[in-house]
Amino acid sequence: MVWDADACGFLADGCPPTAHPSLWRQSRLVARQGLYEVVPGIHQVRGLGLSNISFVEGERGVTTR
Q1: Helix and strand counts by DSSP (H, E) for the chain
Q2: What is the mean pLDDT of residues 18-36?
Q3: Do 61 and 49 have their domain in common?
Q4: Model's pTM, two decimal places?
Q5: Beta-carbon neighbour count of residue 22 at 10 Å?
Q6: Long-range contacts of 3-8 (CB under 8 A, 24+ apart)
Q7: Which of 26, 51, 54, 61 is spaced 20 to 30 Å from 7 by Cα?
Q8: 22 in Cβ contact with 30 (< 8 Å)
Q9: Are residues 28 and 38 in the same domain?
Q10: Which residue range forms the structural domain that includes residue 26?
Q11: Positive or negative: CA dihedral 18, 23, 28, 31
Q12: Cα(50)–Cα(47) distance, rounded to whole angstroms?
C-alpha cells in the first residue's frame, strides 16, 4: 500500500495541547480528498495519492499541470 487515507483519521479529533492549532487546521485541510474547483477554470484532485494534479480549462480545451 502506498497511501492510507484512513491513517489520518485522528485529525477529525480536536487539536491536542501538544500541537499548534494552525498546523492542526492545515493538516485537516490537506487530508481532505476529492476534486476541488480552486477558481473558475482551475480544478485540483487532491488527497488520493502522494501527489496532486491540476486541470486548467482554456480556450483550446483542458490541460494538466
Answers
A1: 1, 4
A2: 91
A3: yes
A4: 0.62
A5: 9
A6: 3/48, 3/49, 3/50, 5/31, 5/33, 5/47, 5/48
A7: 54
A8: no
A9: no
A10: 1-32
A11: negative
A12: 7
Query: Quick one: what percent of the chain has pLDDT higher than 90?
Result: 51
Q: What is the residue type of 4?
A: D
Q: For residue 41, give the nearest of 60, 14, 22, 13 by alpha carbon.
A: 60
Strand order in the sheet with 42-46: 34-39, 42-46, 53-58, 61-64
Q: Quick one: 14 and 41 in the same domain?
A: no
Question: Would you say 46 and 31 are in contact if contact means Cβ atoms under 8 Å apart?
Answer: no
| Distance from C-alpha of 44 to C-alpha of 61, rounded to nearest angstrom | 16
Q: Which amino acid is at 50?
A: L
Total number of domains in the chain:
2
- Three-state secondary-structure class, residue 33: coil
